[in-house]
Amino acid sequence: METTAMVDSGATALFLDQLFVDQHKISTFPLRSPIRITNIDGSPNRAGNISHFARLRL
């Protein structure tokens, strides 16, 4: 697959958009415990918590 990505050098983890995962049929696996996601101002992210992960080779 070929795609364009944005690199955020201040991010503390790597994230994939759910629509991108669905469109490219990327397999995901449930996390044991969801990861709470907040915006820079501390408010909850409207996309919700992270509940799954994917194994990708970049």
Describe the overall structure.
This protein has 58 residues and is α+β, with helices and mostly antiparallel strands. The chain has a domain at 18-53. It is built from one helix and two strands. The chain has a two-stranded antiparallel ribbon. It is globular, with a radius of gyration of 13 Å. It starts with 17 loop residues before the first helix and ends in a 5-residue tail after the last strand. This is Peptidase A2 domain-containing protein.
Q: How widely separated are the two ends?
A: 10 Å
Order of H and E elements: HEE
What about the largest sheet? Answer: 2 strands, antiparallel
Strand order of the largest sheet: 1-2
User: Could you name the ranges where pLDDT drops below 50 across 5 or more consecutive residues?
Assistant: none
Enumerate how many helices there are, as a single number.
Answer: 1
Helix content: 10-25%
Instruction: Give the overall shape, derived from the CA principal axes.
Output: globular
Q: Let me know the number of strands.
A: 2
Q: Structural class, from helix and strand content? A: alpha+beta
- Rg, Å, rounded: 13 Å
Strand percentage: 15-25%
How much is the average pLDDT? 87
